[in-house]
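no rush on this but wanted to send it before i forget. theres a chain ive been looking at and ive put its sequence and its fold in token form underneath. please have a look and point out which stretches look like helix strand or loop to you. thanks a lot i owe you, the record is right below:
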Amino acid sequence: MKIKILQFEIKEADFEANKDTIESLISENYKNTDIIVIPEMWNLGYALTQLNQLTDEAMAKCYDFISRLAKQFNTNIVAGSIANKTEKGIYNTAFSVARNGALLNKNDKVHLVPMLDEPQYLTAGKDNPNCFEVEGMPVSQLICYDLRFPEVARHSIMEGSKVIFVVAQWTTKNLEHWRVLLRARAVENHCFIVACNSVGRVNHSNHMTNTYAGHSMIVHPSGEILIEANDGPQVIECEINIEEVDVQRGNIPTLDIYN
């Protein structure tokens, strides 16, 4: 399964500019690709104070856009996450779309980031990410800060996931945490980790300034980093063999205690 990660700078409060970036990058990188991955909160970035006025309702515009791209370019898209308004609040919602445009999965960020004021503007999801399939491959998708909570990843592993996609806007301040935690989740769950981060220095609407770290990567179930991006806009790609998950789990059968 060939995977490409699109690491780019998200323009705050500018849905159209971010759509243009994503469409351009996918049009340039879709060939010979099974799955394309994009970052967290790509529709508006962390324009938290403006979300109530600007954000998508029930994922409508964002899903239609990603679905069109998936069909047009014949690729599965792990569509990062978006600010998503519902009648219960505004959520940070991850989703994935199949080649035919069908919705494969959606889940809300469970743990909101106090350091970024997320709890003041967003509603926390109640359910851990579930396992779903991309062309027969069991996977799950978690969002940024949820990486710090091993039980969030383990939930989908116990449902059968062999790949965890992590979509993020992770800052340079905690870059080494990012690198360590991604490898830790791979090692403890004997799974592939496919992590997509954003880049760039952003002055946010809530008067915070953050620099996003990049360093998107794909980690083998053994913990080996197969490929890692730098700290600027970049597209990285790697082919994974899902059978290597079973080999790793057979060599070190720590998950057998759950059987």
Remarks:
- Residues 32 and 246 are 25 Å apart (CA to CA).
- The mean pLDDT is 96.
